[in-house]
Amino acid sequence: MADIKNKIVYQIYPKSFKDSNGDGIGDLRGVIEKLDYLADLGVDYLWLTPFFVSPQKDNGYDVADYLAIDPRFGTMADFDELVQAAAAKGLKIMLDMVLCHTSDQHQWFQRALAGDEKYRQYYILRDGRHKKSEGDPGEPPTNWQCAFGGSAWQWEPRLGKWYLHLHDVSQPDLDWTNPQVREELAKVVRFWKERGVAGFRFDVINLIAKPEIFADDTKGLGRRLFADGPHIHEYLRELVQKAGIDGMMTVGEMASTDLPNCVLYTRPADHELSMAFSFHHLKVDYKDGDKWSLMEPDMAELKRLFADWQTGMAKADGWNALFWCNHDQPRIVSRLGDDKKYRVESAKMLAACIHLMRGTPYIYQGEELGMTNAGYTSIEDYRDVESLNAYRILLEQGKTEDEALKILAARSRDNGRTPMQWSNQKYAGFSTVEPWIPLTKNYTAINVEAAQKNENSILAFYKTLIKLRHEMPIIAEGDIRFIEEDNPHVIAYERAWQGERLTVLCNFRPTSVKLCHATLQDFAGSQKLIGNYPGREERLRPYEVLVFYSRT
Ligand code: NOJ
Fold first, then answer.
1. pLDDT for 161-179, tens place per residue?
2. Which residue among 49, 57, 61 has the greatest number of ligand 1 atoms within 8 angstroms of its CB, and so is best to mutate?
3. Do the beta carbons of residue 515 and residue 505 sit within 8 Å?
4. How far apart are CA 161 and CA 369, in angstroms?
5. Residue 428 and residue 126: Cα distance in Å, rounded?
6. Whole-angstrom distance, CA of residue 500 vs CA of residue 90
């Protein structure tokens, strides 16, 4: 089993990380250029989101060839060089495997369209309901909705059937009940393992096992019927075994999952994955569970979720992936922090809050700078298929353009996809030409060069957190217990390990608050391990984080 507990993963979205060849699109050689920066940050693994051949309808999560690199991002020689150059600096590469669906441009789907029976059986094809005659599509087989809005079914005359796509219409779902599909996908994973990859992230992997009977979801949009579906654990164990990746660093993206399944996905005894991403904590500001309805974050719910997942996974030997940000999420400092007056304080507090929990922390590019949401004000600025669909649907529902743009400004995935801010030069040092997606205007102040000159920067704080996890077994191995449970403003927990204790106090408010069950005087004899303000006061200051260490 890879040693995962004291490791830190850095997520790279290559398209927006660094453009090395002046076409406005980030690429693999851009990542090579920045390896020194990443090694200096101190992270262990680099997870790169997909750079395989793709029509880029969903920015690479629509894979047309799993075994070839999209020329936009570079060549296989660039990839091999990246693996080697990274290893020379102590960095390991993790790849993103999109095995739930392919692009409709993948040769498997193209062959299915051409009538090849073998490949028709790679996908999930069904007759419509209420057909009046042969050749009549009828209605979609079920009422399931796709993740990007609208039916999850598409009628395709060349197939004479509806095909299932849980994401964009250009992303047909693969049929995992077909052993040949499972075999082919295991070969794909093995191929990359043999090229020197040290780990894998599996995209929406808990959606691969569809229900045995396809029926309408009478209570929702279908998700609960196909998340963590039948045979999912069997399929994962088989994949791990056939691809030969047992013991490697692996993480599954688990959509709409639950705690008992995540225990099974990650408990070492089951030989499935090393850890799981779950998303409940990033839905506490969805009104009625709807991403496109704005609401203030529900702090009580956030606290409850952390307590349940942290202690529940610990009790059953499961392991969490710890994260606030990725390429599908708005920036956390704009969401749960304050991206203006207290940007630095709140970014540091949010970082410490998650990094000192039990699990493996993930840093998403730019998070270590406190990068903020994009601040786009025109629909022309957006690129993401989900955001563009949502905008159309919001207008259809009667929202004004301003209202819809306000919602996108808070919720769009493009908030996390703006170019990495390397310097205050034109195009933020990301490229020498206009990037494929507009920059966030604040790059002139928020950038790597500026952060490197400031010993109190958010970047410096991240480096300290990384070092602490590497050096202190209590952070990697300790038990966890949540305290201040009825305090609505503070997330607080204690870690304990072999007579050592770490207490983490995080104020999520822009005002000073007091603790309910302790006073800061109680920690007079403890060492302040890390914090985002000098010294300590009676009350926690706005967005203050205080971490105390003691030996009992
Ligand atoms: C999750 C990925 O993170 C997201 O970017 C993508 O759109 C969907 N899976 C579909 O592959």
1. 999 999 999 999 999 999 9
2. 61
3. yes
4. 49
5. 49
6. 30
Identify the CATH number of the domain in which residue 113 sits: 3.90.400.10
Q: Tokens 């045995």 label which residue? A: 212
Instruction: Compute the distance between CA of residue 245 and CA of residue 197 in angstroms, rounded to an integer.
Output: 10
H or E stretch including 350?
helix 343-355
48 φ, ψ to 5°? -105, 130
Distance CA 153, CA 544 (A): 48
Residue 537, in any domain of the structure: yes
Ligand 1 geometric centre to CA of 364 (Å): 15
Burial of 315 (0-12, 13-18, 19+ CB in 10 A): exposed
Last residue of a domain, one of 123, 143, 164: 164
Structural domain range at position 149: 107-164
CA dist., res. 289 & res. 83, Å (int): 40
With respect to residue 511, please indicate whether it lies within any of the assigned structural domains.
yes
Query: 69-77: long-range contacts at Cβ-Cβ below 8 A with a sequence spacing of 24 or more?
Result: 69/28, 72/23, 72/25, 72/27, 73/14, 73/15, 73/25, 73/26, 73/27, 73/28, 74/27, 74/28, 74/29
Is the Cβ–Cβ distance between 462 and 363 less than 8 Å? yes
Protein residue with its CA nearest to atom 8 in ligand 1: 61
DSSP code of residue 294: E
SS3 assignment for 226-254: HCCCCCHHHHHHHHHHHHCCCCCEEEEEC
| Range 290-310 burial, b when 16+ CB lie within 10 A, else e | ebbeeeebebeebbbbbbebb
Instruction: Tell which of 164, 183, 207 closes a domain.
Output: 164
pLDDT tens for each residue of 7-38: 999 999 999 999 999 999 999 999 999 999 99
**Longest alpha-carbon distance in the chain:** 81
The answer to whether position 451 is within a domain reads no
pTM: 0.98
Report the separation in Å between the CA atom of 98 and the middle of ligand 1, taken as the mean of its atom positions.
Answer: 8
Overall average pLDDT of the 76-105 stretch = 98
Alpha-carbon span 375 to 474, nearest angstrom: 39
Asked if residue 113 is part of any domain, the answer here is yes
> What is the bridge-based pairing of β-strands 321-322 and 360-364?
parallel
C-alpha 331/C-alpha 339 separation (Å) is 9
Tokens of 183: 């075999």
CA distance 484 to 81: 49
Task: Check if 81 is active-site.
Answer: no
232 within 8 A of 208, measured Cβ to Cβ: yes
CATH classification at residue 493:
2.60.40.1180
Banded pLDDT at 458 (limits 50, 70, 90): very high
Q: How many structural domains are present in the chain? A: 2
Ligand 1 close to Cβ of residue 251 (< 6 A): no
Q: Does the CB atom of residue 328 touch ligand 1 within 6 A?
A: yes
Distance 270 CA to ligand 1 centre (A): 26
| Total length of the chain | 552
